[in-house]
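Why do we care about 3D structure at all? Because function follows from shape, and shape follows, mostly, from sequence. That is the central idea of this module. The next example makes it concrete: a single protein chain, its amino acid sequence, and then its structure expressed as tokens.
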Amino acid sequence: IFQPVSEKMSIDKALVQKIPLLTVSAGPRDPEWIKRLEQEYASLIKYVQLNKEQDHDWFRVESNKDGTRWFGKCWYIHNYEKYEFTVQFDIPVAYPTTAPEIELPELEGKTAKMYR
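And the structure:
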């Protein structure tokens, strides 16, 4: 269903306002990393819950014990066909100042766009 951009933006804004804010600014080497990781989990859990409620579920992700390596699956449905991909990323040392580089290994080298 087509939605005008302004309507879509207001829906996205309403969704984001329901997700807990991340108040701890710490990376994997910082002493506050565990607190930041707890906030990351809480926000991620809420985001997934809200997506499921709206039938917009599109990924599953989990992390290693340290929360520095994340992996899972993401999917997209187009013309009633489901395309599923492995997703993985490492949390950079300079996180949250530096964003993680999200990888979709199945698409690497198959398209002109960068999926890494």
